[in-house]
Amino acid sequence: MRTGAITAVTDGSAQQKSTQKSAQQKSSNGQKKQKSKGSSLVPGFLAGPVARLKDWLGRPMTSWHLILGVFGLLLAFGLLMVLSASSITALKRGNGVFGTFENQALYAFVGLFGFVFAARLAPKAMRSLAFPGVLVSIGLLAVTLVIGQVRGGARSWLGIGNITVQPSELAKVALLVWSAHVLASRRHTLRSLRALLIPVLPVFVLMVLLIMLQPDLGTTVSLTIVFFAVLWFAGAPWWIFGLLGTGAVAGVAYLATSADYRAARVFAFLDPSNPANAAATYQLNQGLFGMGHGGIFGVGLGNSVAKWGSLPNADSDFIFAIIGEELGLVGTGLVLVLYAMLAYTGFRIARRNVDPFIKIVASSCTVWLVGQASINIGYVVGLLPVTGITLPMISAGGTSLIVTMFVFGILANFARTEPQAAAALYAQGPGRVARFLGIHSRPTPGAGTENTKRARRRAAREEARAARRRERAERSRPARRGDGDRSDRRAHPGNARRSGTRSGTKSQRAVAGRTSGRSAERATDRRDPGTQRDRGARQDRGARQDRGARRTAGPAGSDPRRGDPRAAGNARMRDDAGRRRETPGAGRAGKDRMVQVQGDGRPRPIPVDHQGERTIRRSGRTVRR
Q: Which of 149, 303, 329, 412 is 20 to 30 A removed from 176 (C-alpha atoms)?
């Protein structure tokens, strides 16, 4: 039997080893197959660069580097193209060759402060400023209808000295952040139409109404894109988009045909070869001629012919046509690559964050910028009707540039709040400039850009509140046998035997044990009304036994078996006085209120009858309080 058992164990171990070996072979074969698949998809000379690219994309700060790179390239390229496209027009206006470029550079300088402010603003502060921003935007839109300046047939600008501001651009950011805040707070009830659209939809409709009274169809389309993007990324159901999409298409169709110049643009887009639409298609045709003139590599930077006056709005709405003419297909392809990188980076930031508000805002900002660029490029190349929407970060326009740079700052802020990026920044510590300025604070991982000092103060307050709650709970909790700290129990004489130490004489330990046991019983009695009544009955019996013993006992020095009638009479008088003098003690309120009996000196609970009166029974008597 013993030999058979040993043989069975040996066979089982051998079988287990063979199973493990086969599993390892299968896993190695699977890895080889995966490697062969990957190597078959990527050519040999590209395997190294592709591997390095994947390694770089997996790093924690990649989103931050990407958004900074796209932002810097678009800003520099936009300033360069504004200088090239606006030089002739500015010279004709008498502002000099660099007039429009200087204004654009000044707005870019102001926008850098907006970028830094948005990049350092905590998401919590951003959410708290969202609703005041909406109120300010609506107020500015209303004021623009009264005292605004008219340009291009629309009263859309507010003039403050030599500075002009377009409030409708500010309304886009305000609506996006505020609606994302509202929907992120209600993400568990978005299936309800009321919770989804109230109050976001009324505010959107009010802004659209104020913008269309200017009138400005292009800004209305951009605002609609922002609104639908927020609803989409907030998780709104499909039927909501079907309902709102039908209404939006009907509204845009009405607005596009309500004015003569907008209707002419729509008809020219539908039938561009009609001679009756020659005036409406003039700008589009000049843009196409300029891009065709550029070819693949372009005619050279600054050598455009269309910017000499044949192409209206060459530095703003149709600047993409100037890019195509001067830099050719290569330049326009570079612009498309930059916006594609912006789309990838924005969605990457949204995917790698965990806060629903950050996800909604990052995704909606990306759709807004990329969608606006797509509409601009679409109507320049003739795929969409001309709407007057500018090319973000490239077209000339002060308010549009500042707002777009602020949006890039928001994306950069959220790139730093990614969990892996926050941990990397915390481990890296402050940079050289921060160390030079004495700024040694580090971002807390998972806390985004929130102020660490404020977070520490909040944590200290929460810890103090928790400590006070624990202290109150300890005070309100009655003491029981065996409760408390182990060191306190060991130090107590009554618990010396239980803790393994013996202190004091045998009589002292017995007295201490009886005292601790009596206190625990009293604490237990206070919690149980039934036990309180039993305890009171035992106390009465003990008091009667003590009175009987005192009556039988004589004075000091006398024989205890004989008794003393005078001492017995005095004891009886004291007992009667003790039964008559009953005063309430300082026990807990309500049903646990105690009564201190002067005769025996022991507390006794007061039972409460159904009428709410306190009743004390002593030797057949009832006292009502």
A: 149
